[in-house]
Design a protein that fits this description.
alpha+beta, twelve-stranded mixed β-sheet
Length: 224
């Protein structure tokens, strides 16, 4: 009898350990970010943009698996649009205050909508502290984050469009390029990418933009 109890206890502990490991994994998926300034560039180009552009960004997450605050978000998407006060990533200027809009997947339930918005706020930190609106829209997201590809497409309603490709030899203008600005949020395996499309046409930030044909994106993954 004692052996049976000990065996059962071992099974319970093993299951608990497995559940704990799953809980620590939390949530994971794909990430895409595009800015209105080059992030992969040389100092000469960066100095020509700082304080003039780079105050806007779009951040997109596609949840592959997991939950947030106990709510399953598997297969759902969320996008954040940011309008800051200075060039994002400039070590000599504070980008805050920043205003933002969060767009959640139209397939989300009311509970999932709240969880998606809270997830985005957590990932965005101070940049998403002042959210002026939370919108709901159809979000299409397609990622190919295999090594060297850096291909992604995200569309949210009629307001947001992002599309990237891998950086090519012809995208190196001065020969001294590197990742000048890091991603705006916690990212794994981030790859700089060339932005084919970066558009925001919403009305909530009193500002719209279209900023294609720049070395201004990151594609990667996240895990919390």
């Amino acid at each position: 009898m004692r052996k049976i109890v000990v065996s059962l206890l071992g099974v319970v502990l093993a299951v608990a350990a497995h559940a704990s490991a799953v809980d620590r994994t939390g949530i994971s998926g794909d990430y895409l970010e595009a800015r209105t300034a080059d992030v992969y560039t040389g100092p000469c180009f960066a100095n020509g943009e700082v304080n003039l552009t780079g105050k806007e960004a779009v951040l997109a997450w596609r949840v592959r698996s997991g939950s947030w605050q106990g709510v399953s978000l598997e297969g759902l998407n969320v996008v954040a649009v940011v309008k800051a006060s200075a060039t994002l990533g400039d070590p000599h200027a504070n980008p805050l205050p920043a205003r933002s809009v969060i767009v959640v997947d139209e397939r989300a339930s009311a509970e999932q909508e709240r969880a998606l918005a809270e997830f985005a706020r957590s990932m965005g930190g101070d940049l998403l502290k002042d959210v002026v609106a939370v919108r709901k829209a159809r979000i299409e997201a397609d990622f190919d984050s295999s090594e060297g590809h850096a291909v992604a497409r995200v569309r949210a309603g009629d307001w947001i469009q992002l599309e990237t490709r891998a950086l090519l030899a012809g995208d190196h203008f001065c020969g001294n390029e590197y990742v000048y600005y890091p991603p705006l949020t916690e990212v794994e395996n981030a790859i700089p990418a060339y932005t084919l499309a970066h558009t925001y046409r919403g009305s909530d930030l009193a500002s719209t933009w279209s900023c294609p044909s720049k070395r201004s994106a990151f594609i990667g993954s996240f895990s919390r």
